[in-house]
Specification:
CATH topology of the largest domain: Aspartate Aminotransferase, domain 2
Strand content: 15-25%
Number of helices: 14
Structural class: alpha/beta
Shape: globular
CATH class of the largest domain: Alpha Beta
Helix content: 25-40%
Number of domains: 2
Distance between the termini: 44 Å
Strand order of the largest sheet: 4-10-9-8-7-5-6
Radius of gyration: 22 Å
Bound molecules: ligand C6P
CATH architecture of the largest domain: 3-Layer(aba) Sandwich
Largest sheet: 7 strands, mixed
């Protein structure tokens, strides 16, 4: 993804036309039109995705890769077709490198438990950053506990930017795995992944990128990022919940042992021992989330038709507008002021708990997230228990930002009484 996009408003997208594709956006909440600003938690779904899932269950529902009957063939075609869409979407060299998982969390756990467990020992280190989501901390902690390896943390500054010199200094021949978020969900920071990956590779480490917050907001090319693994979730990409992707370099995946065992991931099974299926199936045990995969394919078609570059430009324009408004709103502090940011605004209002902010905003139909955003170390670093977070998607408008700031002003005046 690329935030060097345009900073102008009006947007490059016909956002008002696109909004009509999302039925959930048309509703009223507490007598007010819904203003949905919780896109980092999950995005709303376009009708095309809802229809693809409904159509799959209505006509083609069958298990995949198991039957010679017509429905199973149709289901398998749709499933395999979606894998090719994902491959092209992230520019992976081969479909063998695209593994369907339950989400970003499932993908990172797979790498930790398969790759990590097979290579780590006591003297080794895993390096993460100070701005990781719990999904890119806890699997490594579990692995380090199990193997005796050490978890290292690359620090950030008060603007929520990774300290590059410290990152470099933490790399050594002991560093076997570097696991970094592309975009911080709690702060919006976009990390310079290609640069970090190159340095990690020079130290001999393998690099996993948590792409949960980047794939829906700008073009992602796993080859130009030069990463070894890239994880993301369908539901943050306007697709269904319960489906995600792990991209992995083929040579690494080939060498890795399976993690979950069961149907579909085997070539042969006997009581003396089993052999494994080819990639990507070696890592896809059991009946997959077929409808989720079909829906994810439809979401990718939808986004491709709009263009990720245009989405990025639109969201960057919203970020500029929201940041300007925040700077002129008395008593409001943005947490996360990196020079390269995605359209995520985490904030505090003087003297008002973020949960109260969220509740009052909801009373006028504005949906934001409040809490620690599954990034408790980030909250600790900034000395706050929680933040309020507005996160933008392709269908948000300048009017949504007006509604957000009207609601913030209302909240402040209620608390000023
Ligand atoms: N962040 C948020 O509100 P799953 O739950 O597996 O789809 O994604 C986990 C995850 C991993 N990494 C990052 C950077 C994330 O932002 C998330 C999910 C949501 O910010 C829910 S906590």
């Amino acid at each position: 993804m690329n935030s060097a996009a345009h900073n102008q408003y009006p947007p490059a997208l016909d956002v008002y036309a696109l909004r009509a594709d999302f039925p959930a956006l048309a509703q009223q909440i507490n007598g007010h039109p819904l203003v949905y600003l919780d896109n980092s938690a999950t995005t709303q779904k376009p009708q095309a995705v809802i229809d693809a899932v409904a159509d799959f269950y209505s006509r083609d529902n069958a298990n995949v890769h198991r039957g010679v009957h017509r429905l199973s063939q149709r289901a398998s075609d749709r499933f395999d077709g979606a894998r090719e869409k994902v491959r092209a979407f992230i520019n992976a060299p081969s479909c063998a490198e695209v593994i369907f998982t339950q989400g970003t969390t499932g993908a990172i756990n797979l790498v930790a438990q398969s790759y990590g467990r097979s290579i780590l020992n006591k003297a080794d280190e895993v390096l993460v950053s100070a701005m990781e989501h719990h999904a890119n901390i806890v699997p490594w902690q579990l692995l380090c506990e199990e193997t005796g390896a050490t978890l290292k943390v690359a620090p950030m500054n008060n603007n929520a930017e990774l300290l590059l010199e410290d990152f470099t200094n933490l790399l050594s021949e002991k560093t076997r795995i570097v696991a970094l978020t592309h975009v911080s969900n709690a702060l919006g920071t976009i990390n310079p992944i290609q640069k970090l990956t190159r340095q990690a590779h020079q130290a001999g480490a393998v690099v996993l990128i948590d792409g949960a917050q980047s794939v829906a907001h700008g073009p992602v090319d796993v080859q130009s990022l030069e990463c070894d693994f890239f994880a993301f979730s369908g539901h943050k990409l306007y697709g269904p919940t319960g489906i995600g992707v792990l991209y992995g370099r083929e040579a690494l995946l080939e060498a890795m042992p399976p993690w979950l065992g069961g149907g579909d991931m085997i070539r042969t099974v006997s009581f003396e021992g089993s052999t494994w299926n080819a990639l990507p199936y070696k890592f896809e045990a059991g009946t997959p989330h077929i409808a989720g995969v079909v829906g994810l394919g439809a979401a990718i078609d939808y986004l491709d038709a709009i263009g990720l570059q245009a989405i990025s430009a639109h969201e960057q324009a919203l970020l500029v507008l929201a940041t300007q408004r925040a700077h002129s709103q008395p008593g409001m502090r943005i947490i996360g002021n990196a020079s390269d940011k995605a359209a995520i605004v985490s904030f505090e209002l003087d003297g008002i708990h973020p949960h109260d902010v969220g509740t009052i905003l909801d009373s006028v139909g504005v949906a934001i997230r409040t809490g620690h955003h599954c990034a408790m170390p980030v909250m600790e670093f900034f000395g706050v228990p929680a933040t309020a977070r507005a996160s933008f998607g392709l269908y948000n408008t300048a009017e949504d930002i007006n509604a957000l700031f009207d609601a913030i002003t209302k909240t402040q005046s209620l608390f000023a009484r």
